[in-house]
Write a structure and sequence with these properties.
This protein is α/β, with parallel strands linked by helices. The protein has eleven helices and eight strands. The chain is globular. It starts with 7 loop residues before the first strand and ends with a helix.
């Protein structure tokens, strides 16, 4: 396992299924290789995009094992950091078992879902007490992270919560879903100098978060055009004018998140990126309509055009 959490772009990995509904290991491996070829520095597996609340524990474990194994086999993906969540239970004891299973499956860091502590959402004190109970059940040498997952409800961390995880010295990855430019800046200041690296899930504020010191992007749109996020992360300081324009493009493109995801990503990857997979989803009950497919075709043409433009510039 890697000891270092890399800066950069972390796709939120989707879960491809075979026609019989099982996890499609071949498609999963092809997807890992595609992320590597696109320049991604890491992968977030067993997350909401993976439909984690709809996967069995065995499926969550299998996903992480396959992703870690395939990343280690590929020249492009050999140095990718693999982070993963996977705790969906209500009791602290069951969550600890789930997180240990994910750790043993090979994740470089195990990511806690913020709404799994103090599930009734009664207050900061209760959240911190649940966190402490959970930490007591996990070995101190496991690298941890936090993800403000929107499902079943979004639990944003307040200053006291952030200070608590910062002060443990055990947390290395924070997936921020606040989508608030002012709060992004405040969090960057609060966590500066700590072991925590901040990754923004929001395309519209991605460039601003980089300028405030965030380490990268971890979100849905890296399943469509991760190379554009990679370019922005690597060049936003040297080519500021081009970076501003690219951020505008990414911002508008990301409104496709409102379409029936993750079905959209599965269609896009299969239709345009050469990764055959079914459009089966356990969390999304709507099939793509002609209108949805038209938008995805437009997104592909725009992404291809802009990738070529950036290649010519650099």
């Amino acid at each position: 396992m890697q000891r270092h959490i890399r800066d950069g772009i972390y796709p939120t990995m989707i879960a491809p299924y075979a026609s019989d509904g099982r996890l499609d290991e071949e498609a999963l491996r092809k997807l890992v290789r595609w992320y590597g070829r696109k320049g991604c520095q890491g992968i977030f597996a067993a997350c909401q995009s993976s439909e984690v609340f709809y996967l069995s524990m065995e499926e969550r474990k299998k996903m992480v094992e396959v992703v870690k194994d395939e990343a280690s086999r590929q020249e492009e993906g050999a140095s990718m950091t693999i982070v993963a969540s996977g705790h969906v239970s209500e009791s602290i004891e069951a969550q600890a078992e789930e997180l240990m299973t994910i750790h043993e499956a090979g994740a470089d860091a195990v990511i806690l879902i913020s709404n799994r502590m103090d599930i009734p959402n009664t207050g900061t004190g209760a959240w911190i007490r649940d966190l402490e109970k959970l930490l007591c059940r996990l070995p101190s040498d496991i690298k941890l992270g936090v993800y403000e997952c929107p499902t079943p409800y979004k639990r944003l961390l307040d200053d006291e919560m952030l200070q608590t995880i910062r002060d443990t010295g055990r947390f290395y990855f924070f997936k921020d879903t606040c989508c608030d430019p002012g709060l992004l800046e405040k969090r960057a200041v609060l966590l500066k100098g700590s072991t925590l690296k901040l990754f923004n899930a929001n395309a519209q504020t991605f460039l601003a978060s980089l300028q405030h010191g965030y380490s990268g992007y971890c979100g849905i749109m890296a399943n469509f055009h991760p190379e554009l996020y990679v370019w922005l992360h690597q060049h936003y300081q040297l080519l500021a004018e081009e970076a501003d324009l690219l951020e505008d493009i990414l911002s508008m493109a990301a409104f496709t998140e409102a379409l029936p995801y993750p079905v959209t990503a599965k269609h896009y990857l299969s239709q345009y990126e050469g990764i055959p997979m079914t459009a089966i989803s356990r969390s999304c009950g709507r099939e793509l309509e002609t209108y949805d497919k038209l938008i995805l075709e437009q997104l592909y043409r725009l992404s291809r055009h802009y990738s070529q433009r950036l290649a010519e510039r650099t």
